[in-house]
Specification:
With 298 residues, the protein is of the alpha/beta class. It is 36% helix and 22% strand. The structure holds adenosine-5'-triphosphate and magnesium ion.
Length: 298
C-alpha cells in the first residue's frame, strides 16, 4: 500500500521519501464486510460505493456565489482531501455536508447533494439525524468545559439514552478508536481543558465517533497542532478510514498526499480536478492544479 513511488511531482523529494498512499480498489473491497460472495476466491473488483454526491451544486452568501456547479462523488470508507488556496470554498463545501450553513443568513444552495442517495439539501431532511450521521472536527479543538468522560457521554446521550455501563463501554470504545484511551483512562473525571492541544483534538474525534456517524468531516484538523500531534492525527485518520468516510480539508500538500485516497482541488469556488491522490499529485490533468501543487500560487 505504501510503496515508495518514482514520480517527480510534487516538486519535492519529501513525498517520494514518505511514500504516497496509493488507491487500491482491491484493498477497499477487502475492507467491506465479508459475505458468502466475497468470501469466494474470486477477487472482488466492485468499485467503492459513493457516499456523498453533488450534481451542479452551487452556493451563495447573499449575492456572492461561493461554489459553482460542483459535480463530485465522495467514495465510502476512503479519505478524500479538499485542497486549494484560501477562500476557494473548501469550508463552505464541507459545511453544506452537515448543513452548518443553515444558520448563516443569506446562505443558500442550488443543485443536488446526496448522502447515501438521500437528498440532504431538502428542508424536510432531519438535520439532527444528519449531524449524527455526519460528524465534524474543527481546526481548533473545542472540547466542552466538562470532564473527559462527559465530553464523550454528553453528545452520545443526547442522541440515545444509555445505561451507565453501556455509556462507560461507549466512552472507552470511542477513546480507544481515537487512539487516546491509554493517555486518559486514569483521569476520565478530569477536565478536558487540561489536555494538550493534540489530545484535545483526538478527544474531539472520539466525541464525534461516539454518536455513530458514517462520515467525519475535518476542517484543517492539524493546523493548530505541533508536528508530533499532527502525525498522531494523521495516523488516526488513516486508521479510521477502515470504518468511516472521511473528508478532510488541508493546506498541507504533503499531508494530503500522505493521508488521502482521493484529492479534490478547488479554485475560486470551482472544482478544478478530482482524482486518486497519487495521480493528482504526480500527473495533474489541469494546469491550475499543477501550478498549485507545485507552489506557484496559493
Ligand atoms: N459567512 C460568510 N458570509 C459571507 N461570505 C462568506 C462566509 N463564509 C465564507 N465566505 C466567503 O466564501 C468564500 C469561500 O470561503 P471558505 O471559508 O469556504 O474558503 P476556504 O477555502 O475554506 O478558505 P481557507 O483556506 O482560508 O479556510 C470566501 O470568499 C469567503 O470570503
Ligand atoms: Mg476554510
Amino acid at each position: 500500500m505504501h510503496e515508495p513511488t518514482t514520480h517527480s511531482k510534487p516538486s519535492d523529494t519529501e513525498l517520494r521519501d514518505e511514500g504516497i498512499p496509493k488507491v487500491d480498489v482491491m484493498s477497499i473491497a477487502e475492507r467491506a464486510p465479508k459475505t458468502e460472495e466475497t468470501m469466494s476466491n474470486t477477487p472482488d473488483t466492485t468499485p467503492p460505493r459513493t457516499m456523498i454526491s453533488t450534481r451542479d451544486f452551487s452556493s451563495w452568501y447573499g449575492k456572492f456565489k461561493a461554489l459553482h456547479e460542483l459535480n463530485l462523488d465522495i467514495p465510502e470508507r476512503m479519505v478524500t482531501a479538499l485542497i486549494g488556496p484560501s477562500g476557494c470554498g473548501k469550508s463552505t463545501f464541507l459545511r453544506w455536508i452537515n448543513r452548518m450553513n443553515d444558520t448563516i443568513t443569506g446562505a443558500r444552495s442550488t443543485g443536488a447533494m446526496t448522502l447515501g442517495g438521500e437528498d440532504i439539501t431538502d428542508s424536510r431532511y432531519d438535520v439532527v439525524d444528519l449531524r449524527r450521521r455526519v460528524g465534524m472536527v474543527f481546526q481548533r479543538p473545542n472540547p466542552f468545559p466538562k470532564s473527559i468522560f462527559e465530553n464523550i457521554a454528553y453528545g452520545a446521550n443526547l442522541h440515545r439514552k444509555y445505561s451507565r455501563s453501556d455509556l462507560e463501554q461507549l466512552v472507552e470504545h470511542s477513546l480507544r478508536q481515537a487512539a487516546i484511551w491509554d493517555e486518559v483512562k486514569d483521569r476520565l473525571k478530569d477536565s478536558a481543558l487540561g489536555l494538550s492541544g493534540g489530545q484535545q483534538q483526538r478527544l474531539c474525534i472520539a466525541r464525534a465517533i461516539a454518536v455513530g456517524p458514517e462520515v467525519l468531516l475535518m476542517d484543517e484538523p492539524c493546523s493548530a497542532l505541533d508536528p508530533r500531534s499532527s502525525a498522531a492525527i494523521e495516523e488516526l485518520i488513516r486508521s479510521l478510514r477502515e470504518q468511516y468516510t472521511i473528508v478532510v480539508v488541508t493546506h498541507n500538500m504533503q499531508q494530503a498526499a500522505r493521508i488521502s485516497d482521493i484529492t479534490a482541488f478547488f479554485y475560486e469556488g470551482h472544482l478544478i480536478e478530482t482524482n486518486e491522490t497519487e495521480k493528482l499529485f504526480t500527473r495533474p490533468a489541469e494546469k491550475q492544479t499543477d501550478d498549485y501543487i507545485s507552489g506557484r500560487f496559493g
